[in-house]
Amino acid sequence: MHKGRLEAFSDGVLAIIITIMVLEMKVPHSSDLGALQAILPIFGGYVLSFIYVGIYWNNHHHLFQAVKHVNGAVLWANLHLLFWLSLLPFASGWMGENHFAKWPVAVYGLILIMAGAAYYILVRVLLAGHGPESTLAKAIGSDRKGTISLVIYAVGIALAFVHPIIAFAIYSIVAVIWLIPDRRIEKHLAS
Amino acid sequence: MHKGRLEAFSDGVLAIIITIMVLEMKVPHSSDLGALQAILPIFGGYVLSFIYVGIYWNNHHHLFQAVKHVNGAVLWANLHLLFWLSLLPFASGWMGENHFAKWPVAVYGLILIMAGAAYYILVRVLLAGHGPESTLAKAIGSDRKGTISLVIYAVGIALAFVHPIIAFAIYSIVAVIWLIPDRRIEKHLAS
Amino acid sequence: MHKGRLEAFSDGVLAIIITIMVLEMKVPHSSDLGALQAILPIFGGYVLSFIYVGIYWNNHHHLFQAVKHVNGAVLWANLHLLFWLSLLPFASGWMGENHFAKWPVAVYGLILIMAGAAYYILVRVLLAGHGPESTLAKAIGSDRKGTISLVIYAVGIALAFVHPIIAFAIYSIVAVIWLIPDRRIEKHLAS
Amino acid sequence: MHKGRLEAFSDGVLAIIITIMVLEMKVPHSSDLGALQAILPIFGGYVLSFIYVGIYWNNHHHLFQAVKHVNGAVLWANLHLLFWLSLLPFASGWMGENHFAKWPVAVYGLILIMAGAAYYILVRVLLAGHGPESTLAKAIGSDRKGTISLVIYAVGIALAFVHPIIAFAIYSIVAVIWLIPDRRIEKHLAS
After folding, report:
1. Any CB–CB contact under 8 A between A111 and chain D?
2. Which residue of D has its CA nearest to C92?
3. Is B23 on the interface with A (CB under 8 A)?
4. Residues C127 and C137 sit within 8 Å (Cβ to Cβ)
5. Are D51 and C80 in contact (CB under 8 A)?
6. ipTM given for this complex
7. Which own/partner contact pairs does D174-179 have at CB distance under 8 Å and 24+ positions apart?
8. Cβ separation of B16 and C11 shorter than 8 Å?
9. Residue A144: its pLDDT value, please?
């Protein structure tokens, strides 16, 4: 089975997720600057979510460069990842609408954990089909960054109940860690 | 005529259907957990609809792997399928919004039947253009799963008027049956 | 310049237009069948608009099969066509929301005329770049169907002020005419 | 790394941006022509934004024709551009909803500046990876049009506080300048 259509479908879903999030920022009826200020929290959530979807797209892109073939299990592991990412616009909007209240911020973190876990599962399913000697296996290596992220998200969720802004800051730090592109795969593909 | 653009267009429509369904989950204005609980039925409908669109995408993907050429009739049979699937977000939202009342659940089942029938027609139109000795014909075989699904949907719709949750459970069972990927085609392509 | 990206972008826009139109059918808050009846006019408009976008996608698909190369003028002629088609969801929603009142029905017809004219322009721009001896020129021939459609739309708009349903019937008849796929191009590509 | 998926993802995002903008034109509840007149300012904003997204798609298309390879930095520079363009529907809706009041018009100009700057950065990042002797470098040349546009946008923003319509006219003039396709790249690719 070719990976082309899986990539195209994923690109489509991610492109739509990243774009419909902006619809959560409702156009204000007033025309003064104060109207913009009122939606600033929603904008903040939008920026972080945009970056996260961008990170997933980048990593997905890198990952599938090393993939040789896909099967039914990969299709579903991929859809599972897209499912959790599709909830980001909702979680992001809820968080912004309520000015970073504790429950919305915690739920946002939960979506990040689930998406991170889904990505982890996708990688395992792909590895199972490629073997430990494949370019893919070498390129992924120990995938420590993925595991650490899950732990940090969990810490963030717990701290949301101390103060939600701490949680938001922690989610942002994980994003910064991932903004550094996955050079492991690039390196192995080049060599 | 090449099948590439038909696949790309279908991927696009399915990607959008699967993603805009999440817009039916309106962001609650309250920030407590109770607000989430109130949209739980909509979330339940979203999960089932997501899985159904995923199933159709998977089957579409498998089906067209064995397709050699398409014509005008195939394009329209495909659009007909996409038409019924495009109504899923509406039916799903109506069902969730009304906490699985009988009419919305019955209409949801009707959409599933129509989509199932449209898929059946698409397969027939493709077979007519490929002949009984084609890889496609061998890969599809008797297509018993498709026919049985239509019968189960009909039973589900009838039972929606006894209790809607029974109908919802029945639709979910059909989804589980289909979650098992269509190995027939994969097998024939490999051999 | 390759035509691939122009096709992909057009597929994307058409896929989104065809899918977001369904968002005009607002989920009713009541769960009885009467609620469905109330949105029946919107559904009627949706069906016709879906078919029209399907027709344009089909014809676009056929047309570009015979296209060898594109330039800046083609890109803009294509965007011009997409612009008018992007207004279909709005016109369709307005028409349904107001139960086929005269002005919305007339404006819907105007969008159809503009889209038809934009398609005509696109064909001319493509022909200018391919010459009268090209496969494209032979495949298109006299394009009588396109010109006649424009005239019928205009008649429909005028009759919208007699009775809007007559206009809607006329638009539907043009759709039926176009549902017959453009065999001219298929024939010339095959020969 | 191949540029194909970056192009496909960008096409997807731009196709969605250009199409969801039309959702800002809310379907009026009244059926007379006056209802259309009331949304005329929103329509005006829609037309300008549609043209701008079209220009960016065209230039992106031309630019990547000359691109040989992409890396992680290019992916992010491209996402950065898409981020600012994704804010166009919001800015466009705000401007139209408030009948071209000064602040919305100024913010619209700011989005145009940021998108212009993001495009400039994208070009620089691409040039850094291709070298001064590449087809890309020759095709882009001095890129005076891009720099001048940024200056004109800034003038437009300042004049929005004198009279917003002047600013809107200035933004429209820049659009007209860009409607002339980037023949430099076409020329260099042909030679």
Report:
1. no
2. D27
3. yes
4. yes
5. no
6. 0.89
7. D174/D112, D174/D149, D175/D48, D175/D51, D175/D52, D175/D55, D177/D145, D177/D149, D178/D55, D178/D59, D178/D145, D178/D149, D179/C76, D179/D51, D179/D55
8. no
9. 82
